Amino acid sequence: AGAQESEGLPVVLLVGDVAMGQKLLKALAVPSSCLESKDTALGVIKNKYYSARVQYRLVATSAATAAQLEAAEALVLLWDLQNEQLKQLQALFPAEALDDGPDRVQICLAVDGEGVGDAAREWCIDQGFEYLSCTLGNEDLKMLEQRCQQPAASRRTGLLDEDSENSVLRLMEALECHSSWPGMQPIASSPEKPPVESQQPTAEEDAKRNGYTALADAPGKPADSKEPVQIEKVHDRIQDDDFAEADEFEKFAREMKESREMR
User: Fold this and answer.
1) Global pTM?
2) 188/35 Cα distance (integer angstroms)
């Protein structure tokens, strides 16, 4: 049943150290589902805009094929500085540098890689991998598991988080920032709340808001009368005055013209 459920899902391929990969796989897996096997698990990648179901798949360096590397939607290389595994991983890729950056997520995760040399970093740049050095202790894996289970709406605003720098959380953050997961579903925005009925504004409030001059109540009108108070727009009055002045000026100009013609 698990194999059928993951069939056709985009693959996040973990290549390298198997022991580290199995720990990582367990933290990334969907909580409600058990691991399909020791080397595969279902997962959900989500942010506040979309969610995408994926299959995490772990492959040892010696078992990785060119077809698997090419078909993966995201690629994560796992290596331990102490075991000098990077050279084996590098052999899976062409020696020449890429002309263009990759159109997928590519992370080179060095566990306890504080002493890594510049050559390893340069290789990551040439091959389009983001270099990430972090630990994979129990606390790190627990944080990653909580991140995968945490609702996207409860996270900080934006996709990037300063706290993820130099931690395994950066791996999940990079996956969440990928915007072209096959089969991803947009997350519906929360329904709008119905408008709250407000009381009718008073004449003074309406006048202040719209630039009106509220006139006094007509003489003899009861104070509690519910008839609307007469309101006049100030700018309309000014406009009428301008028109009147223009008419007077035109009339004066015509009279002057007629007077000259008579002479």
Assistant:
1) 0.66
2) 29
